[in-house]
Write a structure and sequence with these properties.
The complex is a heterodimer. By secondary structure, chain A is mostly helical. Chain A folds into two domains: about 70 residues, no CATH class; about 210 residues, Orthogonal Bundle (MetI-like fold). Helix content of chain A is about 75%, strand content about 0%. In chain A, helix 2 crosses helix 13 and helix 12 runs antiparallel to helix 13. Chain A is globular. The two termini of chain A are about 30 Å apart. Chain B has a single domain, classed as MetI-like fold, CATH 1.10.3720. Classes of the chains: A mainly alpha, B mainly alpha. At the A-B interface, helix 1, helix 2, helix 4, helix 5 and helix 6 of A face helix 1, helix 2, helix 4, helix 5 and helix 6 of B.
Chain lengths: ~300, ~325
């Protein structure tokens, strides 16, 4: 990693002449090598995680660490999946994440549409309050949220998790979708008005289909947020059968502090859907990540 | 994938307007047929938001002025600013603030410097570029629980991978470092996790910003015989300065919010020496059920974080105005 700035400084510029072109190829090779070394360091922890998950559990950690499994076995996966409630945690996480995604995208799309499409009194003030909500870190209000969840009967409930996860996504998702709805050309909207379409029909037949990439991005964010969430679940879930994957994995490590193979088998199972969803949505996701960051 | 891809992805779904732009923006088509139509669309979202964010925020302020009793039917006496006085006079609270500050100093400058280098390297076409971008982003989307436990394993004193690398590969230390058993090395380990997890996000944001730097400036610099470093210092960096500030502030806010990694790697130990404000607050609330004290501490944190956020808002706005 430390070699990267040096290669950056030492490289001659422009192109055209043969010697310059040769140095440009050398520069690309140097850049690729530096980026590959960086990727190696970033991926090494995951390699160790997956390797350990395929090895028998031992009291002592191997030294040097293994980057390829020795005596490979799938025993940890079998144990993680059958020997505990891990399958249940997986189902719980899937249930909570899918429902959160559907609810958050549907509700935010309607809210974003109202702010993008119409001028109405109080609009800017309400929107500013919504944006201010984005800046409040969730944990700052975790105590009153816990009291609220308790009075709504949402402790120890998966639907309660869905409710609060959905609520937590609304400000960000609305912010992201509003920008997309605002780009819909007014000509199309007016054409539908001429055809006698009402507001709801325009929303469903014109705005939602045009915003499909944005809705996909919002869905990926909502899904990953719910799938990875730990602190709120830790606070409101105490019944072991209601645990989500992050809770289950953390509890696993607490109970079997030396059974790292088991912990990492569980972790690998939890990470696979995340990586799959991320890769499937990665092209659109970049647009969502950089929305608001670069103007 | 071309360098402009992030921007194209944001607009490609919109059919190109037949005319350059719509002159009647804000005209009749933006007025709803009935006043309640926009409110009806916004109502579910706003209701959710008011119930789960607005109301708890007000409630949090209220609770912070009481010695809150969680048992039903018992009194919660009003104590004024006592909880705040107690927080500000609590050495453990200040230890936790210092730890968050140390975490900030260990993570934010390093994350920005390293991600900037990699963004510049990744900006131009190269083999397997998309693959690298995907790999760099994977730590960002992975659950904090998974990566915290993973780093706890890597930083084990006995035969941990980090100690192996330092001792047997680099020969930088002669004895294994008891990473998580002492305050500053534990904070360093948690900081390493913070940097590792956030690099990908910073790189993606920087790449988008680099795509917006005017290309003709590079050509002009090349004509002037500028080398790569001169181009970076005089064209690239000024072009993305606003984004660097934006990323720095998001990272600073993130540093104040450090929580699950501390909870799972050290749990504040040894002897509370690696506690950060949020872990301390969380324990006061849910281990000792001292909701009033915890709420007072969260409010102090909220004020600090809001101040930084406000700074971000101001800088972003100035940046936009400067572009006009």
């Amino acid at each position: 990693m430390s070699s990267a700035p040096a290669t950056l400084v030492g490289t001659p510029s422009a192109r055209r002449t043969p010697s310059r072109r040769r140095s440009a190829i050398g520069w690309t090779a140097a850049r690729t090598a530096a980026v590959a070394i960086g990727a190696l360091f970033l991926m090494a922890p995951f390699v160790i995680m997956v390797t350990t998950s395929f090895e028998p559990n031992t009291a002592l950690l191997p030294n040097p660490p293994h980057f390829l499994p020795q005596n490979p076995t799938i025993a940890n996966y079998v144990d993680a999946w059958t020997g505990s409630d891990f399958a249940q945690y997986f189902v719980n996480s899937a249930y909570v994440s899918v429902l959160t995604t559907l609810a958050a995208v549907a509700i935010s799309a309607m809210t974003a549409f109202a702010f993008a499409r119409f001028d109405f009194p109080g609009k800017n003030v309400v929107y500013a309050v919504l944006l201010a909500g984005l800046m409040i870190p969730g944990i700052v209000i975790i105590v009153p949220q816990f009291i609220l969840a308790k009075s709504l009967g949402m402790l120890d409930s998966l639907n309660g998790l869905v409710f609060f996860y959905t609520a937590g996504q609304i400000a960000f998702t609305t912010f992201m979708l509003r920008a997309f709805f605002e780009r819909v050309p007014t000509e199309l909207d007016e054409a539908m008005t001429v055809d006698g379409a009402g507001t709801w029909r325009k929303f469903v037949r014109l705005y939602l289909p045009l915003a499909r990439p944005a809705l996909a991005t919002a869905a990926v964010f909502a899904f990953l947020g719910a799938w990875d969430e730990y602190v709120w679940a830790l606070t409101v879930i105490s019944d072991a059968s209601k645990r989500t994957l992050p809770l289950g994995i953390a509890a696993f490590q607490g109970e079997h502090s030396t059974a790292w193979g088991l912990v990492f088998a569980a972790s690998t199972i939890a990470v696979i859907p995340v990586v799959a969803v991320y890769i499937a949505g990665q092209r659109h996701l970049i647009a969502g990540i950089t929305a608001g960051a670069v103007k | 994938m071309s360098t402009e891809a992030p921007f194209r992805a944001r607009t490609e779904h919109v059919p190109a307007p037949s005319r350059p732009s719509k002159p009647r923006r804000g005209g009749s088509s933006r007025r709803p047929a009935h006043w309640w139509i926009p409110w009806a669309f916004a109502a579910p979202g706003l209701a959710f938001f008011a119930l789960t964010t607005g109301y708890p925020l007000v409630r949090s302020l209220q609770i912070s002025f009481y010695q809150w009793s969680v048992l039903p039917g018992t009194d919660s006496p009003f104590v004024g600013f006592d909880n705040y006085v107690r927080a500000l006079g609590d050495p453990q609270f200040w230890t936790s603030v210092v730890n968050a500050g140390a975490y900030l100093l260990m993570t934010v400058p390093a994350t920005i410097a390293v991600s900037l280098v990699f963004a510049v390297l990744l900006h131009r076409p190269m083999p397997a570029r998309t693959l690298f971008r995907v790999l760099y982003y994977i730590p960002v989307v992975t659950s904090w629980v998974v990566v915290s436990l993973l780093f706890k394993y890597l930083f084990s004193s006995d035969n941990g991978a980090v100690n192996w690398f330092l001792q047997d590969v680099l020969h930088a230390v002669s004895e294994p470092v008891p990473w998580l058993e002492q305050r500053w090395t534990a904070l360093a380990a948690v900081s390493m996790l913070g940097i590792w997890k956030n690099l990908g996000w910073c790189i993606v944001v920087f790449l988008a910003a680099l795509g917006g730097v005017q290309q003709d400036l590079y050509e002009a610099a090349a004509l002037d015989g500028a080398n790569a470093w001169a181009k970076f210092a005089n064209v690239t960096f000024p072009g993305i300065r606003g984004t660097v500030i934006f990323v720095a502030i998001v990272q600073i806010i993130g540093a104040f919010n450090v929580f699950p990694s501390i909870l799972l790697m050290t749990n504040g130990g040894p002897a509370g020496s690696t506690e950060v404000p949020l872990t301390y607050m969380y324990k006061q609330a849910f281990s000792f059920l001292d909701f009033g004290f915890a709420s007072a501490m969260s409010f102090v944190m909220a004020i600090i974080i809001s101040a930084v956020s406000y700074l971000q808002y101001r800088i972003t706005r100035e940046k936009k105005e400067a572009r006009r």
